[in-house]
């Protein structure tokens, strides 16, 4: 690892000032679970590490207009075990629970999972399906971006130099909504997914037919992505084998997986359809329970 300065600001303003001082030579560190490995491999060689650990209030998990706001420094374990997250948006707590091991979840942070932009990560998939918005702060002030516009490419985000992720915001799901996150793991329980899928289904007032569905996928492209062609087939439909099959086939047109040690591209393509079908079934059944029609 190269030699570097280490700064531990106590406020966001101070952190932004240090980032301004060092420019592109500085790197923010939160949990360090990804960055330290990249530094050891000399993939990045910052001359200054700016730790967010001492920044007051950045780890808060709180309500926000009936929804949730998760501070960037909240750990995966805090998101997984937060009574607020479990009660308001249980699928989000469940998604964080599926990340790696408890040891890693105690270190990795919500903001790190977004800024790192590895398409194999789990939380971005569910957050994308939930229509979450990223809160960003830079020297010029704050801005918010839909998560769908945040991920640009493999390990690339819309963050400008000197900007920080400060939080992620999730609106409350409408009534008669069900959600599911599924991760296919052929190797070990703490691995990254071969394919991950999140589905959110909101039902019509009849409590049976779909009013709106959102489907997001991980590990099958250079960013986590929405399967919009599959979503478009679902409005007005009831849950049936043929609807699930058509949605799964449509989802395959949205993805472009790479072959790796977790499966060939062809296998991941087929698994995309399978996982979309399973996630939709679970989300639909949860929506029917929420609507009282099951
Ligand atoms: C062995 C192992 C297995 C894993 N398995 C999974 C898995 O199955 N699923 C999964 O989802 N994740 C998994 N992870 C975690 C994931 O890959 C990342 O390591 C983690 O999300 C990064 O979070 P962090 O807080 O540690 O970020 P860091 O390592 O501190 O930083 C990562 C990057 O984000 C930047 N950054 C961090 N915070 C901010 C911020 N607030 N604003 C701007 N930039 C910021 C850093 O500068 C750096 O570029 C695994 C990690 C390990 C080590």
Could you explain how this protein is built, in words?
The protein is of the alpha+beta class. The protein folds into 3 domains: 5-51, Uridine Diphospho-n-acetylenolpyruvylglucosamine Reductase, domain 2, CATH 3.30.43; 61-170, 2-Layer Sandwich (Uridine Diphospho-n-acetylenolpyruvylglucosamine Reductase, domain 3), CATH 3.30.465.10; 177-291, Enolase-like, domain 1, CATH 3.30.390. It is built from 12 helices and 14 strands. The strands form 4 sheets. A 5-stranded antiparallel beta sheet has the order 4-5-10-6-7. Strands 11-12-13-14 form a 4-stranded antiparallel beta sheet. Strands 1-3-2 form a 3-stranded parallel beta sheet, with helices on one face. The longest helix is centred in the C-terminal third of the chain and has 27 residues, at 265-291. The model has no long low-confidence stretch (mean pLDDT 96). The site of flavin-adenine dinucleotide has 30 residues, from strand 2, helix 6, helix 7 and strand 10.
């Amino acid at each position: 690892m190269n030699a570097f300065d280490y700064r531990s600001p106590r406020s966001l303003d101070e952190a932004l000032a240090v980032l301004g001082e060092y420019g592109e030579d500085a790197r923010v560190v939160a949990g360090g679970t990804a960055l330290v490995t990249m530094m050891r491999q000399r993939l990045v060689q910052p001359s200054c590490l700016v730790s967010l650990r001492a920044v007051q209030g950045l780890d808060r998990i709180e309500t926000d207009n009936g929804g949730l706001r998760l501070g960037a420094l909240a750990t995966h374990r805090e998101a997984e075990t937060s009574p607020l997250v479990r009660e308001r948006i249980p699928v989000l707590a469940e998604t964080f629970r599926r990340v790696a091991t408890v040891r890693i979840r105690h270190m990795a942070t919500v903001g790190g999972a977004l800024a790192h932009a590895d398409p194999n990560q789990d939380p971005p998939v569910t957050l994308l399906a939930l229509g979450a918005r990223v809160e960003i702060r830079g020297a010029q002030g704050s801005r918010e971006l839909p998560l769908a516009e945040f991920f640009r490419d493999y390990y690339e985000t819309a963050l400008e130099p000197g900007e920080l992720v400060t939080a992620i915001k999730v609106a409350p799901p409408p009534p008669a909504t069900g959600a599911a996150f599924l991760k296919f793991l052929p190797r070990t329980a703490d691995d990254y997914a071969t394919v991950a899928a999140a589905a959110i289904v909101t039902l019509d007032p009849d409590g049976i037919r779909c009013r709106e569905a959102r489907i997001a996928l991980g590990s099958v492209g250079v960013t986590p992505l929405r399967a919009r062609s599959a979503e478009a087939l679902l409005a007005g439909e009831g849950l049936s084998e043929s609807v699930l099959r058509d949605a799964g086939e449509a989802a395959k047109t949205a993805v472009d997986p790479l072959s790796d040690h977790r499966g060939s591209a062809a296998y991941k393509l087929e698994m995309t359809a399978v996982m979309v079908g399973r996630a939709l079934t679970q989300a639909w059944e949860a929506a029917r329970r929420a609507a009282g029609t099951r």
